[in-house]
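Good morning,

Attaching, inline, the backbone tokens for the sequence recovery test we're adding to the shared suite. The designed sequence is right after.
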């Protein structure tokens, strides 16, 4: 085996910047020895204080890990946000919010105190968490814990188990939580079976996780409830957004204000030594180190969060997204028409009315500010008849953005402007979000491919201005642009070596890689030319040539399919070469015409590049 060069070896050993950052955090903060391991639950005191693991999960499902990231420990209070979200979805917001507040308490996590309405301050303190578990217990009875365990497992993307020793230890020493439970019962927040509720709560806190697990769980919160590793929608976006809100104000207990001021990422800690942090629409972070500070938070875990936020400027209130970046291209069909090869009459109509079809290609997130900017940009130019919004680079659509889209489309409908959407599949979440607000609108059409959308709008312009598109029209060789300038005798001789071929709709006429041994002149119908990956290069109608690259190449470089029943003149390449030798003037004319056709295609391609690079 040939040894790698020094540069190649260095390349194989290189790490992504985020992984290097986590490595640096691990190395630097391992030296931090302050704090103490929780001992009020005896089993927790057995944790090795030297253990330290960090994991970060991105919203595309990649997970970085360093240190003891696969070492199991109990989830403890980090279960609270997930159980709160589960309760919201299972029981409804009204039921949960009538029993549990959402205000910070300013007290330690295990305070035996309720708010002025004799309800828990929020679901992140023990009183609120026990109340949440109690609500689920009232609804599910003996199945309550299994419902919670399965939900936690779906957030983690794997089946989670219980540490029975920690569960027993918590149960034996949980008198303070029992006092909270009976206080809740006295105030009718939970039902009579306090022991049953607390048994579920102790088990829920004893579920085993790893730093990797809680990073994925945090990323699921950051991803509006969709697990980025499994792709599963675990809970509703409503429940997730309300959970993140409470995590922001109360997730770190009596350190919550300082936390959100300095770090600015919704987070939750557990006395087992874990901290999870969920930065909405960005990432999830999980860390494990069992030594805690006076607030019950992991000392090293806090340092990791502080470093991540400061180093990458991730404070959630310090966002700098610019709505103007949502538009990657804005043009009309005069600058970038469809790939349909048009006949002269059609070209004339489209050239006279090119501004009647406007195309706006969008990128990123369709947020309220992005849609507002696009609507103002659209209104700044004369009203078109058709507006095509291409969404294939759009990564997500907020509900606020979708609602503003619908309101903008309603205004366009009142002005007799037809909206065409492209680049979004009907089976996608983006389509569902858009259709929730636009389903009743009558002026909205959709095509998956942008070129198909442009072609359809062009057809409508041709029809509206007196043109016609007759796919059944039959054309002769004299009408072929590639044969323009040939004399009558030359066309007659060429016709003598042609064979008329007939193709049914959907038939594959040419295949990439096959020998290029003939060229074709489309006599009637329509065909389309595609690359092997399905990208359409052109749509051709009667009077156009295809397979003409056989004059320059020995093998086919694209596939050709019949869009409908079609006929074509086929000319074998060998016979055509003999024709060229017999008619040198015609041969020169054909090659000049071919050069012009290729130049026209290049001009169109360059125009598209210019559009994308100048916006």
């Amino acid at each position: 085996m040939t040894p790698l060069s020094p540069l190649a070896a260095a390349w194989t050993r290189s790490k992504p910047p985020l992984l290097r950052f986590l490595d640096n955090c691990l190395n630097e903060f391992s030296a931090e020895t302050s704090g103490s391991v929780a001992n009020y639950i005896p089993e927790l005191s057995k944790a090795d204080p030297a253990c330290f693991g960090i994991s970060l999960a991105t919203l595309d499902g990649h997970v970085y890990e360093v240190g003891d990231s696969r070492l199991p420990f109990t989830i403890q209070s980090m279960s609270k946000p997930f159980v709160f979200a589960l309760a919201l979805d299972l029981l409804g917001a009204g039921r949960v919010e009538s029993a549990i507040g959402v205000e910070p308490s300013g007290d330690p996590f295990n305070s035996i105190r309720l708010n002025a309405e004799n309800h828990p301050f929020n679901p992140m303190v023990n009183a609120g968490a026990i109340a949440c578990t109690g609500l689920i217990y009232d609804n599910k009875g003996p199945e309550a814990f299994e419902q919670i365990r399965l939900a936690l497992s779906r957030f983690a993307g794997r089946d989670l188990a219980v540490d029975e020793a920690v569960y027993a230890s918590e149960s034996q020493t949980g008198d303070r939580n029992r006092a909270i439970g009976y206080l809740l019962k006295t105030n009718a927040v939970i039902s009579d079976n306090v022991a049953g509720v607390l048994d579920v709560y102790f088990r829920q806190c004893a579920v085993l996780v790893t730093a990797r697990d809680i990073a994925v769980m945090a990323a699921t919160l950051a991803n509006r409830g969709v697990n980025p590793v499994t792709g599963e929608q675990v809970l509703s976006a409503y429940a997730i957004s309300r959970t993140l809100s409470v995590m922001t104000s109360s997730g770190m207990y009596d350190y919550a204000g300082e936390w959100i001021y300095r770090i600015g990422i919704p987070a939750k800690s557990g006395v087992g030594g874990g901290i999870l942090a969920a930065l909405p629409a960005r990432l999830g972070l999980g860390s494990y180190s069992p030594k805690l500070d006076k607030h019950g938070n992991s000392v090293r875990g806090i340092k990791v969060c502080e470093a991540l936020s400061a180093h990458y400027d991730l404070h959630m209130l310090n966002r700098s997204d610019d709505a103007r970046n949502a538009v990657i291209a804005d043009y009309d069909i005069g600058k970038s028409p469809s790939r349909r090869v048009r006949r002269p009459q059609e070209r004339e109509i489209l050239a006279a009315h090119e501004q009647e079809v406007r195309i706006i290609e969008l990128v990123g997130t369709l947020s309220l500010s992005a849609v507002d900017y696009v609507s103002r940009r659209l209104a700044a130019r004369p009203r078109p008849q058709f507006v095509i919004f291409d969404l294939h680079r759009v990564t997500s659509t907020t509900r606020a953005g979708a609602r503003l889209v619908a309101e903008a489309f309603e205004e366009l409908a009142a002005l007799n402007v037809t909206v065409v959407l492209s680049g979004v599949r009907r089976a996608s979440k983006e389509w569902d979000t858009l259709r929730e607000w636009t389903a009743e609108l009558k002026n909205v059409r959709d095509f998956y491919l942008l070129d198909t959308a442009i072609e359809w709008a062009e057809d409508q312009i041709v029809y509206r201005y007196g043109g016609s598109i007759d796919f059944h029209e039959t054309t002769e060789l004299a009408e072929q642009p590639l044969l323009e300038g040939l004399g009558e005798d030359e066309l007659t001789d060429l016709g003598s070596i042609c064979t008329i071929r007939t193709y049914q709709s959907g038939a594959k006429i040419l295949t990439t890689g096959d020998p290029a041994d003939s060229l074709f002149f489309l006599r009637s119908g329509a065909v389309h030319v595609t690359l092997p990956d399905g990208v359409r290069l052109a749509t051709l109608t009667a009077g156009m040539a295809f397979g003409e690259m056989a004059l320059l190449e020995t093998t086919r470089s694209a596939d050709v399919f019949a869009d409908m029943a079609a006929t074509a003149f086929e000319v074998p390449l060998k016979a055509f070469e003999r024709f060229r030798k017999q008619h040198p003037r015609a041969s020169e004319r054909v090659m000049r015409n071919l050069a012009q056709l290729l130049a026209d295609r290049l001009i169109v391609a360059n125009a598209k590049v210019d559009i994308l690079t100048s916006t």
